[in-house]
């Protein structure tokens, strides 16, 4: 692609994604210059995705872009932060056609609007390798209020947002071209391709949390991370793990397993520690119609994960988490 | 590489690069949380480099890392910003050996220390393609003081830092394995591989500039950008363009050309517009021993670049700039 191609692309497709942010300087300067409110801290996260590793070349480009945006927004949510601006780097293979890039940009535009998250800058390069995208997301938290992974205490409630396991089952669903799964298949594939960052829960409940992280590598592995850095253990009652109707159906039909639900990746739900005294606040939140928050266990003094399956038996996963690396 | 490999790498090589920044949370959380001083704006820039496009696989890994850091610092300097923190994404080919990665990290560590620029986060992924690195650099400017490309006015002095053309000649030098160029060859290759971000000039003179950008794609092309967004033209007296002793020697020996000097990339010097009244400030700066600032022409009302070669003849480049894209 020529230099003219780069500038043309930026002007045509990406500059509109910056239009709501004057500090982006219409993507014509060396850097963006953003106003920040006094009394806040800056929360910064970065995620990279590579064709053939994190997505397949025949995945819909719109959803690739939206997932990239949303996994970063999910990281901001996990810190209790509010989105401020994003920076996108695209490494395009020379053979990639304009239609693919246009579809990618249109998916991004949808989420720039949905989350009021402008693309305030970035870089565009060519690569002899696979398409590679890196998004840097900036967010804001009132100073001193960021929710870390390390704050869980023995006796805390262990809770999750939304439903668990849809990401892993959704990966299966997205890879099955036969359509035999019907509406459930479409639902799960969409859950895999377009995760929902739980910014509403972050905005509403972060002030009550002791700890939070987002579940990207599987509930069991990510719970292990929280326990490790917090110096606590945890018990999980799998009968209380919230499942979508689709996941319940696939589990009943033997199309999915508890192993996949508990250890699969790509859920992008929040895993949270609340003091026991916050139970009524969680109940009030759920009554208010926000993204459901479900208590599935407790954090415990000492170390170790203790999982109990729906039949009341101790349960141990074969593997501890999905890895993209 | 295994997930254990990723966490091991981060812990061993990258966590020390974050150690000076408590907000990096030792790279163990979903995101970094940085304190920002009141009354400042956040300056953000991103650069990506791809093996085989922006560097060669046999380039020294230390200098690849340092150049990545420095081209971003150069963008911050061009805005008049002070470095605050960086975020690094590495896409490593599966076959890359640990020694290469360790050398890369050691180069980065040198510049993290030299510029007090911690790596406060990032992402590490594997790729079936070439090694690809993306750095997001955050900097700070007192609110309202960022120097944009768009502020040049007719009558302004056109000035540059350091010496011009070493980047393009250095690329040639770095690609010649015969060593016939001696000390000049080594000097130029080093200038190409390890550019010097002109943060001292930014800190000392930004308050006097009308406009600034860093020269990455060649003096002529980048001057064209400043003129275009500022709505002005420019004249350049090539006899005043500052050349290193090495560049002068290569020019005299026919190993380099004015075409390469004026339109080659990778200088990472600053191109600046100053009001004519700032001439004595520039003189005082130069007398103080900072990175030399040289007036090479003037910005003019209207449009168009008018270049005069050292013999006093009008000069037009064959091409207008180097492109990585």
UniProtKB/TrEMBL annotation, chains A, B:
Its EC number is 2.7.4.16. Reaction mechanism of ThiL seems to utilize a direct, inline transfer of the gamma-phosphate of ATP to TMP rather than a phosphorylated enzyme intermediate. It comes from the Bacteria. One of its GO terms (biological process) is thiamine diphosphate biosynthetic process. This is Thiamine-monophosphate kinase. The keyword DNA repair does not apply. Residues 29-141 form the PurM-like N-terminal domain. The keyword Phosphoprotein does not apply. Mg(2+) 3 binds at residues 30, 75, 214. Keywords: ATP-binding, Kinase, Magnesium, Metal-binding, Nucleotide-binding, Thiamine biosynthesis, Transferase. Mg(2+) 2 binds at residues 47, 75. It is an enzyme of class 2 (transferase). GO terms for molecular function: ATP binding; magnesium ion binding; thiamine-phosphate kinase activity. It catalyses: thiamine phosphate + ATP = thiamine diphosphate + ADP. Mg(2+) 4 binds at residues 30, 45, 75. The gene is thiL. Pathway: Cofactor biosynthesis; thiamine diphosphate biosynthesis; thiamine diphosphate from thiamine phosphate: step 1/1. Belongs to the thiamine-monophosphate kinase family. Catalyzes the ATP-dependent phosphorylation of thiamine-monophosphate (TMP) to form thiamine-pyrophosphate (TPP), the active form of vitamin B1.
